[in-house]
Amino acid sequence: MNPKQAQQPDKTVTGNYFEDFKLGQEIVHATPRTVTVGDVSLFTALYGSRFAVQSSDAFAHAIGYPRSPIDDLLVFHVVIGKTVPDISRNAIANLGYAEFCFLAPVYPGDTLASVSEVIGVKENSNKKNGTVYVRSTGRNQRGHKVLSYARWVMVNKRDLDAPAPDPVVPKLAASVYPATLGAALPPLDMSGYNYALAGSPKRWGDYAVGDKIDHVDGQTIEEAEHQLATRLFQNTARVHFNQHVEGKGRFGRRLVYGGHLISIARALSFNGLANAFHILGLNGARHVAPSFAGDTIYAWSEVLDKAELPARFEMGALRLRTFAVKDQSCADFPGVKADGSHEDGVVLDMDYWVALPR
Amino acid sequence: MNPKQAQQPDKTVTGNYFEDFKLGQEIVHATPRTVTVGDVSLFTALYGSRFAVQSSDAFAHAIGYPRSPIDDLLVFHVVIGKTVPDISRNAIANLGYAEFCFLAPVYPGDTLASVSEVIGVKENSNKKNGTVYVRSTGRNQRGHKVLSYARWVMVNKRDLDAPAPDPVVPKLAASVYPATLGAALPPLDMSGYNYALAGSPKRWGDYAVGDKIDHVDGQTIEEAEHQLATRLFQNTARVHFNQHVEGKGRFGRRLVYGGHLISIARALSFNGLANAFHILGLNGARHVAPSFAGDTIYAWSEVLDKAELPARFEMGALRLRTFAVKDQSCADFPGVKADGSHEDGVVLDMDYWVALPR
Amino acid sequence: MNPKQAQQPDKTVTGNYFEDFKLGQEIVHATPRTVTVGDVSLFTALYGSRFAVQSSDAFAHAIGYPRSPIDDLLVFHVVIGKTVPDISRNAIANLGYAEFCFLAPVYPGDTLASVSEVIGVKENSNKKNGTVYVRSTGRNQRGHKVLSYARWVMVNKRDLDAPAPDPVVPKLAASVYPATLGAALPPLDMSGYNYALAGSPKRWGDYAVGDKIDHVDGQTIEEAEHQLATRLFQNTARVHFNQHVEGKGRFGRRLVYGGHLISIARALSFNGLANAFHILGLNGARHVAPSFAGDTIYAWSEVLDKAELPARFEMGALRLRTFAVKDQSCADFPGVKADGSHEDGVVLDMDYWVALPR
Hints:
The structure is a homotrimer of 358-residue chains. Chain A is an alpha+beta fold. Helix content of chain A is 20%, strand content 29%. In chain A, strands 1, 2, 3, 4, 5, 6, 7, 8, 9, 10, 11 and 12 form a twelve-stranded antiparallel beta sheet that branches. In chain A, strand 10 (296-308) and strand 11 form a beta hairpin. In chain A, helix 1 (37-47) runs antiparallel to helix 6 (223-232). Chains in contact: A-B, A-C, B-C. At the B-C interface, strand 2, helix 1, helix 6 and helix 7 of B face helix 1, helix 3, helix 5, strand 7 and strand 8 of C.
């Protein structure tokens, strides 16, 4: 929590506005969270994930894990959820991610906490809002980093007359490099990997750059589901929960947390990418259009690149671009138009590296 | 279970009617329940609770708990849920609570069971129903009391000609006294309490009698959510689950379990009372008006009193009156009118003691 | 996974069609699953089950279990869920079950995996589809069978010109025999069974063949609930999840997973059969009519038969026929008409053996 955080006289918290963020500031986020098998079950019920490593202690153990690790995206949702009250409360747009890497495996019983450092600020010319750049880090109870990423959001100003800070826009890598990834994979023995139990015989070598994979199935979102998910992650962003306010707002509906879409797409991607059991890192994720309960989400992926993983001869990395689309099949791979804008119906465009057996 | 409990010839249970309750009767309730981390995760998903002590084993351990304790209200819901088939099945109104104290901490793996003693009965002059007073106790698997409270409900008679019992109305304390509270707090070392991780720097000394705190956020209830919650607590009261019957009833809707409102309000109260991590006891809770799916719940609290806790120099107690209100912001603190009746929209009026660092 | 399984060039899986199934084929299903207390909590929240053995470690331990066992039907849903991508994906009807027996207790931490053997195939005269008979087995991480059953489904052909296989219809027992059942019960000491905590004093001897038991309460299904349940079981059948497609289909609605109805009926049956804590085996389950969110489910049971359990003098078996009915009370026991067809509103007709204290 930021000691300078704006507070009403009645001690409630209204979150940080653009001018509250200072370059170099460190924000210790509240609400450390012990992640448990209870969270794993709820995550399965919310998304229907079938990746065998995260589903079965026996399967995970057979390849070298002490037990089934916590799903990478569950780690992400928990870590980012803690940053929301301090970073996002007055945000009007989630602009992007960079240098997003999973750094250590997480297991049931581990406690995660988040800290952010302000690495850039730039007021907009309209003087009503500005972009805040942070680097957020999730650590476990032993102080080890489990996840680190940079993120930037557009945040409103409280006082339109507050002077603009000196603009600083951090240099961020356009993508994460597989050679630096893999820290969240323990030493593994892929000779124990059972392809029948995993659900697919397809290994790294069976994919080629340019492959397009339709994940086929569609999942319709219900209000209760996205609310349960977002609360599970202790993410408090009001637009997801308050129909009384949202009903009179721009969309008339509660907005589905963008991370919910990410996890639906990831679960759908099992069909075609069943052995891509680990997300190494994320190059970017754009929430292209809002999503609401009643939307049916479909997904497809393109293989953008392949890379070896240093010192892991038994595994390889694929760079994927996964699109989540609402209310239309992905048989024709709806993505970006010639001018670079997204086709109608695209709600998520995600670029990330996964690891799978070689 | 009460051996005299009315049963159909086909062995199902129809619950106790007013004339089935006898002064001094002890009712052993069914369905002992082992509370687990699975329940903790669901509780978090249902309410979004962020109190650090109940969220993180590491945080709890740092102040002297062996691990993160089970949320006080989760203990309450589980204990009272067991009493419902025997006490509430033919109840038409939940009238009140008194002498409600948490008596021992509960941890994942503990098994809770409930017993009630009938401590008063008074038929109404209309001879159609009467008030039943019980004292209910929840114990763990070692036989230690974890929660005790008195409660009274209005219950229908089965046989309108059944003679009225001698009326007995128990003398119950108007409020619980902090000096007698705190048994559910283990020995604690508050020097390990991390205010940044907890989410607020506000301690007992920062609150004054008369403070009014708007908890700001609103939470819209969904049918699936309140049903999942109520079943999680193994509470079988039919009005929460059966739209086929309720659709033709007075409200046309399934009634949301009052305890669901209590927990929503408690979770919302984190904003402004983040360090009030333990509920010592309850002076009363009135379900002022019914609530239904679609309602957006807001909350605010007033500090009614402050007290020291005997032998715990590092902590203090606040007496809070928390109102849950539907479909309106609490910026203007909607509560009671001059004549003592509640303002429109108030659904819950709760008076309780909490403990926080001093 | 079946190596011959049809795959799109883009590596997704479209499931097996009728002509893909060969007599004697063994299919190793994907997605082994460690069942945990998280799953137990969700199961309780979904169905409100109150059977004391599955609710309380202390209660279970008192009669000889090491701890509370996983609910029999939860074991069933997890095991059958794994077979769906390979067996049911192109099925148009679920025709029946036989020789369905629980074979070993399952505890939190156990990992379940499923394997099926094709034991019969018979193309229909219309040459568009045919019946596939499989025997499916769920095993734990030690390789011990926990559940075995035969099942037959009607599956579409991909290629209408594919030649019909030689028809084989397996001889399956019309019912399971109590004398062979009970393997999923550990050695038990029923002297430790607490009838008050269990919720009913009714033992095996209190039931007679021909008894009809109305389970009284009704449960209204919500979209989020059946979706959460079906995903929890990692059951991917599309008709349960995709309103975009189902909205244009025959019913206009997402179909509720038949197993969800089975578990609602089982939970409702606690009222009247509270001590029937173990399902020994199933003789059959017919999903008589489709069910959708908004349906209110009621249930009633008839005692078809009684039997002793070999070597277990403290327990007996009841053969039950449980009907789940939508949108009507079961006070008049709606079941089958004189001509053997089901009365309107019946959605499930289940014939199974349960064990209870003698």
